[in-house]
Here is the input.
Amino acid sequence: MDAALRSIEVERGPIEVLVYNAYRVSPGGPATPEPQDFAADLQVNVVGAYAAARTMHGLMAPRGRGSIILTGGGLALDPRPWLSAFSLSAGKAALRNLAYSLSAAFKADGVALATVTIAGRIQEGTPFSPDLIADAYWRLHLEGLSAGPEVMFTRE
Here is the structure.
């Protein structure tokens, strides 16, 4: 992750915004995934986000600006064990905690970090419209340090 992001910065110029939207899920309820599968899911869902955020903080902090946006999910708020996505629920909860922790830490260096929590199925004509969500990502970047650590999309 570090080498890839640094390479992009060298080849294309300063990265102003990073959106981390990767995930991995092992289907099954609690106690279903094998430990190594659960660990692999957390590696993508949380450790990958941390690695990307850490690298980008190192690149953005000397400039005193930049935005890191992590895509969260409603499973962080309501795990729904019957949904057969236990590992994703755990990963999104950890990602949300990570976002809150890093947001406070990075702010002093001029780097904004936030999570967009999408608590529903992304679909046109709903509160979860891709255009509405894209606008939220863009607004987060434009608001920078004045934005909070989280934007939520819920049915309410």
Summary: Residues 4 and 52 are 10 Å apart (CA to CA). The helical segments are 2-12, 35-60, 86-107, 130-143. DSSP finds four helices and four strands in the chain. The first strand starts at residue 17 and ends at 20.
